[in-house]
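Need the bound structure for DQA, inputs here:
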Amino acid sequence: MKIFVINGPNLDMLGKREPEIYGSDTLESINGELAAYCASVGVEPEFFQSNSEGELIDFIHSAHGIADGIVLNAGAYTHYSIAIRDAIAAVELPCVEVHLSNVHKREEFRHKSVISAVCTGVICGFGKKSYKLAIDALIL
Ligand code: DQA
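Answer from helper R.:
Posting the output first, comments after.
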């Protein structure tokens, strides 16, 4: 089973960025731990991060016919990118929306997601464990 694990804008800054909210692990170390977990459950992950909306859309498109599912932390694009929403809908794959933080405990503008309606489900608030829970959601 192949799963694309996609991170959007500013998630390349994990470890340095607001550690009281997002934790002190870097994206590289989170992806490393996730890769080990994936190997233990027979999942082949493919990791991608971009700060650019167009690159994220291109990568989501590339999942079509290749991946069995998508784990997506679209960062702030979650809250307003109709283009990313449409890309998820276009590829017709199970997609889990992920957030490290519990967006519902935070500013009101983070309470709205324009992508949830085209995702299979949403996991937020469990820090780096959110990604592992999303893998479990796709495979169990
Ligand atoms: C985030 C939450 C978003 O509101 C924010 O813009 C991010 C990270 C999270 O993982 O908690 O960049 O998606």
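Comments: Helices lie at 19-22, 27-40, 53-62, 82-91, 129-139. The CA atoms of residues 51 and 113 lie 18 Å apart.
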